[in-house]
Write a structure and sequence with these properties.
545 residues, alpha+beta, seven-stranded antiparallel beta sheet, 12 helices, 23 strands, 23% helix, 29% strand
């Protein structure tokens, strides 16, 4: 079915609001049409539903393809459908298999390659879809990677935003469960079509139930606690880590080097997919592809990132589709936090930055050289009162990004090591690592390391962090690869390193028994000693110039 809609006052108002909030380029044509519930056949006999937005002056207009599990109405429809059509593009928004009227069962990531290629084959028979661009954020970005290596010739460019070619596999490191993201997304997708979901979310009911579910032990029962039944995707994630051949069909990272269309990747310094997105970009560049990278001071749902992906779709990707010269883009464009500057670079990581060691020292100090001899600093991790997660990379926007860490740092289970006031700016751009020597009195512990910037008033803002699982063997050297960053610590500020045994509920609690994280249920406190002497020079390593 497809008809020209009646005057859509709500949609037009939403489009105007989106333009103001996102600071999009001005709309070139408010007179757009939409055909809803188009039926697209898949190769295995299913039917996907789609909407087709079109500008009034559609002659020669490129087509943006957006495939989503989140529906074809509401904010996403306004942002990707109406907003892009008002700026001169056809837009095809397609509901993924098993969602919002499309046939089948939704098994996250499982059918996106085959269904995406079916959509592109169907488009090849539409007279208005001769030149196609792929665009979208998060899961919508993953659907691009799913077809990119086999994309037909009508696909001219792609703009993946806060995403990865292997999506959820980024969270499935062995022996570690990124609980808040995996359970939160599972519950969200499982309930998104239920009546009343919006009101339960607005009233905070869903959030309270999810928070309670995340305390469930063993973790295999957390989805049932939240939903009343098990959810297949959550269970798959608990039982199969990222190295398991089970995910072979869902992991598109091996084919990234085969992608030949131009790619503009949009990322955020506080995004959950940052490290994976950087690897995808590096693979493209190593293969000699036309690849560009933009990283802003954004988290996963930040409006600034949405602005960037829509602008690139309208200006850069559409130019490729039309065969005109696209706006100049450097290989790498980074927002340098601390000084609030955008800078262009030739590659990632940029050249000219040298690793510098900042050594943990007794009394909570952080210095340029290790202390010759000193006793270790101790803390105790108690999974019944777990060290909380605060700010940083989160799936939802609530509480994400840089936040004041002083309350967290006052806890006895969080060690802090702080430099003196800096006499000059310290510029850090690139990969950040920590090397921590520790000993624990149990078979297993977690190590969470966070880098913070402390201003002249003592406010401590998180810059980057990560957590690793440790199976100690006496005094053990542990290396943590923190998320990459671009940050200038200003003169008069101080550099701080946090060391703790967890960040819950972002990461599932380490229960201390050494068993698999998804089946363990008994709680055991763990005493941890952090060494910082000449023989055990614990340090954070910052790429500086």
């Amino acid at each position: 079915m497809g008809t020209r809609p009646r005057l859509d006052l709500v949609g037009r108002a939403a489009g105007s609001l989106a333009q103001r909030l996102l600071r999009l380029p001005p709309a070139t044509n408010r007179d757009v049409t939409v055909e809803r519930d188009l039926r697209i056949p898949t190769r295995d006999g299913r039917t996907l539903l789609a909407n087709h937005w079109a500008p009034a002056d559609a002659a020669g207009a490129p087509t943006a393809v957006v495939r989503t599990p989140y529906g074809r109405s509401g904010p996403l429809d306004w942002l990707y459908g109406r907003a892009l059509a008002e700026r001169g593009l056809h837009v095809l928004t397609v509901s993924c298999r098993g969602t919002f009227g499309s046939d089948g069962d939704f098994r996250a990531m499982r059918h996106e390659r085959e269904d995406g290629l079916s959509v592109l084959r169907w488009l090849a028979g539409r007279p208005w879809a001769t030149d196609v661009v792929l665009t979208g954020s998060s899961y919508l970005g993953y659907t691009q990677w799913a077809v990119a290596a086999q994309a037909p010739v009508q696909v001219k460019a792609m703009v993946p935003h806060v995403t990865s070619a292997r999506l959820a596999l980024a969270f499935l490191r062995p022996d570690r469960v990124e609980l808040e993201t995996l359970l939160g997304w599972s519950v969200s997708t499982a309930t998104q079509e239920r009546p009343g979901t919006l009101w339960r979310t607005l009233l905070g009911i869903s959030r309270k139930r999810l928070a309670a579910a995340m305390t469930t032990l063993p973790l295999t029962g957390a989805d049932t606690a939240a939903l009343g039944h098990a959810w297949p995707f959550y269970q798959d994630c608990l039982h199969h880590d990222q190295n398991d051949p089970y995910w072979e069909n869902e992991d598109h990272s091996p084919s990234v080097s085969d992608v030949t269309v131009p790619v503009s990747s949009i990322a955020g310094w506080y995004d959950i997919f940052l490290a994976d997105q950087l690897r995808d970009f590096q693979v493209l560049r190593a293969a000699g592809r036309d690849a560009h990278l933009t990283i802003g001071p954004w988290w996963h749902t930040h409006l600034g990132g949405m602005t960037a992906v829509l602008r690139d779709t309208v200006d850069w990707a559409a130019a490729h589709a039309r065969g005109t010269r696209p706006p100049r883009k450097p290989p790498v464009c980074l927002y340098v936090m601390g000084v609030g500057q955008w800078r262009d670079f030739d590659q990632w990581p940029p050249l000219g930055y040298t690793p510098q060691r900042w050594h943990l020292a007794p009394g909570g100090a952080l210095g340029s050289a290790p202390v010759p001899s000193a006793p270790p600093t101790k803390f105790t991790y108690d999974p019944s009162d777990p060290t909380p997660s605060l700010g940083g990379p989160k799936l939802e926007g609530r509480g994400a990004g840089p936040v004041d860490n002083r309350g967290l740092e006052a806890r006895p289970d969080v060690l802090v090591f702080t430099s003196g006031a800096l006499t000059a700016d310290v510029e850090v751009i690139g990969e950040v690592t920590a090397e921590v020597w520790l000993r624990a009195d149990g078979p297993s512990c977690d190590l969470f390391v966070r880098l913070c910037d402390v201003d002249g008033r003592g406010k401590s803002l998180n810059v980057c962090d990560d957590l690793v699982k440790v199976r100690p063997d006496g005094i053990t050297k542990v290396t943590v690869s923190l998320s990459p960053t671009a940050f200038v610590f200003r003169r008069g500020h101080r550099i701080r390193v946090q060391v703790s045994g967890g960040a819950f509920p972002r990461f599932a609690r380490n229960l201390g028994d050494g068993g698999p994280p998804h089946t363990s249920a008994a709680l055991r406190t763990t005493a941890v000693e952090v060494f910082h002497d000449a023989e055990h020079p614990s340090a954070i390593v910052l790429p500086q110039r």
